[in-house]
Each structure stands twice: as C-alpha cells, then as structure tokens.
Amino acid sequence: MNIKDLESIITLFNAHNLSSLEVKEKDLKIKVQRQTVTVAPPAYASSEPQTVPTSKEKEKKVTETITSPIVGTFYRTPSPDAPPYVEVGDTVHKGDILCTIEAMKIMNQLEADFDCEIVKIYPEQASMIEVTTPLFEVKRI
Amino acid sequence: MNIKDLESIITLFNAHNLSSLEVKEKDLKIKVQRQTVTVAPPAYASSEPQTVPTSKEKEKKVTETITSPIVGTFYRTPSPDAPPYVEVGDTVHKGDILCTIEAMKIMNQLEADFDCEIVKIYPEQASMIEVTTPLFEVKRI
Amino acid sequence: MIKTLFIANRGEIAVRIIRAARDLGISTVLGHSTADADSLAYRLADRTICIGGPQSSESYLNMTNIITAALLSRCDAIHPGVGFLSENAEFARKTEDAGLIFVGPSSETIRLLGDKIASRNVALAAEVPVTPGSVTPLESLEEGISLANGIGYPVMIKASAGGGGRGIRIVRNDRDFEQAVHISRKEALSFFGNDAIHVEKYLDHPRHVEVQLMGDGEGKAVHLGERDCSVQNNHQKLIEESPSTVVSDELRHVMGNDAIRLFSHLNYRGAGTVEFLVQDGKHYFMEVNARVQVEHPVTEMVHSIDIIREQLLIAAGKGLTISPREDISNIHAIEVRINARGAGTVTSFSPPTGPWVRTDTHIFSGYTVSPYYDALLAKIIVAAGDRQDAIDIMLRALKEFEISGVETNIEEQVAILTSQQFRSGRFNTQLYDQLFRQ
Amino acid sequence: MIKTLFIANRGEIAVRIIRAARDLGISTVLGHSTADADSLAYRLADRTICIGGPQSSESYLNMTNIITAALLSRCDAIHPGVGFLSENAEFARKTEDAGLIFVGPSSETIRLLGDKIASRNVALAAEVPVTPGSVTPLESLEEGISLANGIGYPVMIKASAGGGGRGIRIVRNDRDFEQAVHISRKEALSFFGNDAIHVEKYLDHPRHVEVQLMGDGEGKAVHLGERDCSVQNNHQKLIEESPSTVVSDELRHVMGNDAIRLFSHLNYRGAGTVEFLVQDGKHYFMEVNARVQVEHPVTEMVHSIDIIREQLLIAAGKGLTISPREDISNIHAIEVRINARGAGTVTSFSPPTGPWVRTDTHIFSGYTVSPYYDALLAKIIVAAGDRQDAIDIMLRALKEFEISGVETNIEEQVAILTSQQFRSGRFNTQLYDQLFRQ
C-alpha cells in the first residue's frame, strides 16, 4: 500500500464525516476512527442504506451515494470507443443510463432513480464492483 | 516499512484529528491512538488487602478484619471444656491469644498484632477456615 | 490443484471451509450478504465480496452474483456449503458452464437425487432396500387407498420434491386418506412448486441412520460408517452420533455395502450421505443428501479424516485416497447443536476447549445473530473411547459453554443427554417429543 | 474409586485436571493462592479453598495448608499437577502419611529419581544406555579433569540435584575446567541447596526425545511412544511433537523397551517420562520426570488416551488398562506453547477452534496474567495425518489465536514453524538460537 492511497481513504473518511472506517483487502487492513463527542444528541441515522448525507448544510449541498445493486464489471461507456454515459458535472434525469455493469456476459444498465447532478464517479473503468460498492456521488435537483 | 512511512501516517493522523488509526499489511501492523481526557478521577483502590474499613464514620468507628493466615479448624477455646479465649466486647492486648487453628494435628495459636476491642467473631466453633477467611472484626484502641 | 476457492455460504460451515482450504494452501474468497459483513468467516477469508442484501434470495441464492463474483475474483472453484444452493442442480450446472469447479457431485447427479421418486428408483435399481410404497407419483385417490391397504397402515404421504419434513402427512386409516392427500398436495405446491406426492410405509419407531460416503466420480466409493441422527425436534436434527447404538457390525457392513453400490451406480463424485430409517434391525432407504452435511464432524472424529479437505482434493482431481479406520470398537463421537432461540447480539462468548472437545462455530463476543438465517450457533463435537464417556465429556463441555446476549437450547440439550433413554441408547426419533411434549 | 480430588496447582494444568476428574464423575476441590482467586480453574472447580498468598512459597508450596485443606474438605486424593510440589518426595510422603492418595509415584520413587546420580545408577542397573560420565559426585578437580579426558571434550558439569538447565556448565578443555566447577558448585548450592556436581559427556547436536510411560506400581509398564522437545529456548520447551523425525521404528522399539525395563525395575506407579538425548541415531538416558508433563497432550492426541484420566484411575486402584495405538504411521501431533512476555490483563481473548485443533488454556477475556507464576498462557495442540499437514494446521490455528492486553510469543512460534529447518525436520536443540540469536 502507499501513502497516497491512505490519504485518499482518510479524505473519504472526512468527507463523509464517518466515525469509523475499515478497509480490508487480502493482507492489507486499514482502520480509521474518530472519537465522537458525546455531549450532542446522537447523529441522525438514515434508514435508507443507499443514500448517505455527507454535508452539514442541509439546504443545497446534500449529496447522496448511489451504490451497486449487483456484482460485476463497471463500464462508464456503452462500448470501448463510445463516450461515457455521464461525466462529473452532468445533470441527468430519472431513467437516464448512468453506467453498464457486466455480469456473466450480460450488460446491465443502471438507470438514475431521480433527477440529479453527478458530483463524483467512484470506480475505475472496467473495475470489479460488488454489492454496496459506491458508484456515483450525486446531488438531487 | 520505513520510518518515513510511519512519519507520514502519524502526520495524517494528526492532520485529521483522528482518535485511532490502524493499518495492517501482511506482517506489518501499525496502530496509532490518542488518549482522551477523562473528567472524573479513578476510584481509590486500597493497597492493603487484610484490613477493610467497614464504617463511614472515620474518626472513631473504623474497624478492621483479622483474617486467617492458614488453612485449618477454628477453635475459640484452648480445650473442649475451657472458656473461650475472647468474647465480643473484650479488650485484648498485643500478644494475647485470640484463637487456636488446628492444622495437621498441630494447634496454632493466633495472637493479636495490636491492642484492640473485639467487635465480632466470624467463624463457628470447629469450622473449617481457609487463608483470608475473616476471623475477627476488631477496633484498634 | 485449486488455487482460489469461492465460498458461497455463511456461518459455521463457511468458517469450516475456509479452515480446510487454508490447511491445503488454497486462498479463499467469501461471498457474503450485507447482513454478514462482520462475520467470523468475513474476518478469516483472504478476500470478501458482498453478493447482496440480507435476504437469502438477494445473496446466498443469487446465482448470477455468486458466479460473477467467483469469476471476477479469479477463483477456480465454488464450494456451496450446506443448504442454500448446495443441492441446486441449476447452480451446479451454471458453475460448470462458467468453467468453474463445483465442489460437489455433477449437476446431473444432483438433479436426479433431488427427485424423491427418481432417487427411490435408483436405489431399487442398485438393489438397496426401500420402504414399501409407490414408485410413481400418485395419480388418484383410489390408487392411493389401495396401495395403503397393500402396505398396511400407518402410511406416509410425502411431497415428491420435498425435504425437511415439509409436505409429509401420516395416515392411519382409509377414512383420513382423502383429507391428507389434499393437505399434502397443497403444502407440496406451496413449498416446492410441485404438487406431486407419493405413498410410503410409515415406520412408527424408527431410528434415523445415515451412511457417509465419498466417491471419486468414476464408480469408486468408500463408506465411513453411519451417523445416528434420531434426536430430532420436528425433523430438525439436534444430536448426532457415531456409531449408532442400533447398528450391529453386520448391519453396518450390509448398509455400507448397499450405500457403496448406490454411489457406484451413480458414479457419485465427492461427499454424500445415504439416509436410512432403521427399525427392528431392518434398514430402509430414504434419500441421498448430495452434499456435505452439518453433522459431518462426527464421522471426521471417528475416522480422523477431514471430509471437507477430501471434498476439495476430489474436486481438484486428486482422487479418492482416504483409508477409514477399520476397527471402530473403541471410539464414539457425539455432536450437539447449539441453537439460538432468537436473534440478538452475543455480549460474551467463551467456547468449551480442552481435551476431546471440538467446537465449530462462527460466533464471537459482539457477533449479532441475524433473524435472516438459521439458528445454529455452534456445534460441539466430542470423541471418546466409548459412548458413556463421550456423553460425560459432552456434559463437561456444555457446562463450560459460556454465552450471553442470546437465549440458547443448551439446557434442553443437557436434559436430553442426561435422560435415561438417551443414556441407555434405547430410543427413537420420538425421543424429543417424549421428553418435552408429554 | 476416588470421590473427591484436591488439586494443588494452578493455571492450565489445574483446568486440565478438573476436566479429567469431571469426566470420571470425581468432584474437585481447588487449592488456590490469593492471586488466583478469579482463575478459570477457580470458576470450574466444584469447591475452592484459599491456601495462601501470591508467592508460591506461601501457597502452592505450602504443604501444611494443602494437606490440611485436602483433609478438611474430605478429599481422598491430591493431584500435584506439574512443577510446584509434583516431584517433591516429602510432600508425597506427607500426603501418604495423612491417609490420602498421592496421584503420582510413591514418595520413595520420587526421592530416588530426584537425585541425578542415583537415577543414573538405576538406569545403569536396568541396562539403559547413559551418557559416559561420572557415577558419583565429583570429589576433586583432578578426578574431574582425568574423567573429562577419558570421555573426550566437550563435557558437561551438572548439579546432581538439578533440573531446568540450572547449574550446568559446558567445558571444552582442561584450561576452563576449574572455573566451571567453581561456578557450577556455587549455582548448585544456591538453586538446590546442595553443591554436589558430576561430569558427563556433552552432546553438541542432540535432540531432546522423551518416552511417555504409565506404570501400575507393581512392575508392569506400557510406553506411549516418544515426544520430541528439541525446540527450546534456554532449556524452556517451546514446541513438542510426536513422533520425532529422528526416531526410526527400530529406535522407538529399543528406547521404549529400555524405558519399560527402567519403570519395571522401579515398580513405577502412574504417569512418568524417561528423557533421552538422541544424537547420530544413538540414545542416552538423561533423567526421569516422575510426574505428568506439560506436553502430555501431544501423546494423548497420537494414542487417543487421556493421560490424566489414566493417572486418576491408576491412583484409584483401577489398574493399568490402556492400549496404545500400534500403527502410528499416519498420525502426527504438535503442541505449541503460547507464553506471555510479561504480566498484564487480557482485554480480549478468542482461542482457535475447529477441526484438529485442541486448546488447553486457563485464560479468558478479563484474566490477569500474574507476575508470580510462569508465563504459559495456552497450549495449542493439533493432530493430522502427517507432519507437514500438522504444521499447516498449527499455522492456521495460530493465525486464528486472538489475544490483546498482553504481549505473547505467537509471532516467534510462527517464525519457527515456517522456518526451513523446522519444516525439514532436520534440526537440534540449537534451533532456537540459530533462528533468533545469530
């Protein structure tokens, strides 16, 4: 592992205001924690596992994470030489295709569930994703 | 791993104000933690196991427990038809015999270590006692 | 040899498989549900992949996610464990089609044995004694009643596609026959999507005795003696032991050879079990379990053979090389299943340890028993020179078992083990009801 | 039969004895120090009696308190465990005099074997090969140097009353002889209260191999094969295994018969070990351990015999009825000792479990490792079909061993097990130094 990766992990940890984050892959294991202040009432726990509020300003800047519903290979493009379905900054509408996830030679197209702006795209092109892997950070519009 | 990496990790730890960070890779494991301040002082633990203050009024009524130093059979009397060595309310002086403890046919006489008043006698006549069994509750005089 | 093994299961059996793989130098990839993201198997596996949500249908039964995960993580083989997809012929075939080794019998063997009537016919073809009854699904009520009178009441109406005691009705006279057929078909349809039923003789004081086998897939098979699984509550096994107190050396020899003949006939590959009912010294074929079983450790302790290891070796093409112990006169093994009475978080846990005691478990202090899966918390297995000693050692182990945070069946298991009936060895599958329902 | 057993020991061996007693229906009374008032043995025993303060001299070596406690709690017998009073002839005699059964050899046997020179003479009388050397304590420096030249350097100067490697000096030439005698006598006097020393041939690449026996006290003895204890750090055993990679079937037969002859000669009662050094295919008698040993589980796993149980049965007059496994060609057992690096409180603990792994331990989450006693935390014992598999299973078990709060030697043990030297089986008692001090 290298320090750049660790830095990215901690940045993610901070960006999402987590209290504990554990990453395990093969022989590598990383665990990050921050003590929570106990004076304040407990933080709001979302009952919807797929969307995580990541900012304290509730009005405009709340983003959500779209995670993978299946195991497969992530593709940003419909075919090797085609342009990506979406880029960071794009606005997409409910039903627009966000990416393709290939599983057992079948291309599964993931559609947006709501209108939103793409804030971040997590996986690399052609990387393996599992269920719950973060795919996109989006902001509802 | 080298010290530069460790330094980088600790820098990251500090920069992000973490309370705990654990990195494990193959045989290498790094765990960084920062102690949190506890408001209340820890409870006082007595270092003297044999004497236990049994009352809250510290001036006069503090009693102490004399416990058995050996395993054996407890006798309050020197012989079956003799009167007890001590009774509750008696005042005894350092060196006075308090009881007999029989072990392997040998009568061991337990002497008072200090002048005191007998407040309570715990074991029954001829009962088995082990090391630390409370024998007498006494008040120093 | 298999280099990387995908484990499509959870709980103690996933831990068991990881251990056997590790002992062979095989690296492991665990497919887990979101509910099992902090399980012991998760902690022990070399790599983990989330294959779906907490419901089994989303994860442990999700063939596409499992096979995709195995392929993308460059596994050579999939071990299905027990339950879930372990006896699913379609999953075995899809695994084979994806170019992966399915650790188990061929998909055709599984398909054949999954059908009660077909497997009964295979047993008949291999000259294995079966309970008297119909060999084809029941066509009419009249046929059934006539059959029942031929066999003699009581008889049993069973779902042809069934298992786990569901879709079974016992009938003691002509009068009740029609109603029983009606309910049985309805249950069969709702549980198994198939309303085929058939009629068999009902044995009213049987022992459930099963023979463990391993086959090389080319007609050679070896048996590892029997397990007695007669202590059951509502068809759920609670205590298993080997040898059985009702199996003589001669009966063991005959049952073992019957089972070997059947496995040879099937060209059976890997570990499997032939289940018999034994009553009054006679044995009757029930079914084949085309997978490893929860209670396999009992046999492992008797023969000092690691069944999961041998499964992996056979799957890897290393052949069948086990040599079971010939003289089992001075060994007896017992397994007790510790089940949770409900979901909850284990606040403290300390398994029994020490001589002659083996604990197979996936729980630990802080583990949350999920409401989504079965209630098995741990299997305690002991081995000793004879049955009475084994019972005493098991009682010692159960006394040392410490768990808090979830209710368990430990007290009940102690009551069974200390009962005069169990001690004597003279009991049948009704024991649980006799002890706790009368 | 023994009804109530007093256990005059602590730690894992006390737990081990409680378990064996419980399996036999014997109730247990644990004598414990004030420092062990919340030990696992304390929790498991049927009754506990505090026999003194934390210092061993106040409690586990306090004969009067122990025997009084055993008498007053109506015990029939005392098990001394290992260490402490287990090889103390005076304690054995006092126990006998009090009308109690001492679980071990007779006090006379212990007294005889406690003297190195006397036990060497008994070995000679029983025609057991010993290392060349003096048979009587050294009288003069001249005698010693002449003896050393006769044997050939290197030679060893040993405390006659010694044990545990203390009071031993290796001498390689005449020049160093006087100084070594001086130091050796001084150490012997301070450790054992007796400055008698003698001279023996020093073997420079030996294996430490010991034969486990059980005797009936009337001249009959049975051997249970050997344990190889060559992995030692400063004479402290770290890893033990059976069979030894340097013991051929023939050597086993010869050593076993030598050991049996010695035990018959002694009318030895109960469990005991004959220690040999083995070098270049030859074996040399070292000493007899007149008690059960820490590493006894290795032998238990090879032969499926419970040595503590058999100790209790022999002590109770039930005789010697064990039948060791005849063919040990497909079994190998290894024990690894997990030691604490210092005192402290165990904040979390999870022992390895699962197939082929046995954990004998007295620790638990919350247990405090006391500075007063030895550092042993747990013994992990595995059994498998061959040595390589046993090593792999042991590595799996050590990987699963979870402990926090105290530092342990687990990483070091893993390094030994994975070393090319240990794997190959070609190593000697210098292995530890070769791996960690060079």
Characterize the structure shown.
The complex is a heterotetramer, with two copies of chain A (141 residues) and two copies of chain C (438 residues). Chain A is mainly β and 141 residues long. Chain A has two domains: 3-33, no CATH class; 59-140, RNA polymerase II/Efflux pump adaptor protein, barrel-sandwich hybrid domain (OB fold (Dihydrolipoamide Acetyltransferase, E2P)), CATH 2.40.50. In chain A, 9% of the residues lie in helices and 35% in strands. Chain A has one helix at residues 3-15; strands at residues 20-25, 28-33, 64-67, 72-75, 91-92, 97-103, 106-111, 116-121, 128-129, 134-140. A four-stranded antiparallel sheet of chain A has the order 3-10-8-5, with no helix packed on it. Chain A has a four-stranded antiparallel sheet with strand order 7-6-4-9, with no helix packed on it. In chain A, strands 1-2 form a two-stranded antiparallel sheet. Chain A is globular. Chain C has 438 residues and is α+β, with helices and mostly antiparallel strands. Chain C folds into three domains: 4-103, Rossmann fold, CATH 3.40.50.20; 132-201, Dna Ligase, domain 1, CATH 3.30.1490.20; 207-436, 2-Layer Sandwich (D-amino Acid Aminotransferase, Chain A, domain 1), CATH 3.30.470. Chain C contains 15 helices and 20 strands. Chain C has helices at 11-23, 40-44, 63-72, 89-97, 107-114, 116-125, 141-151, 177-192, 249-266, 296-303, 307-315, 387-400, 410-418, 420-424, 431-436; strands at residues 4-7, 27-33, 47-52, 77-79, 101-102, 155-159, 168-171, 197-201, 207-216, 221-233, 236-242, 269-279, 282-289, 332-339, 344-345, 348-350, 357-361, 368-369, 376-384, 402-404. In chain C, the strands form five sheets. In chain C, strands 13-12-9-10-11-14-19-17 form an eight-stranded antiparallel sheet, sandwiched between helices. In chain C, strand 6 and strand 7 form a beta hairpin. In chain C, helix 12 packs antiparallel against helix 13. Chain C is globular and about 60 Å long. The N and C termini of chain C lie far apart (54 Å). Chains C and D meet through helix 1, strand 17 and helix 12 of C and helix 1, strand 17 and helix 12 of D. Strand 2 of chain A pairs antiparallel with strand 1 of chain B, so a sheet runs across the interface.
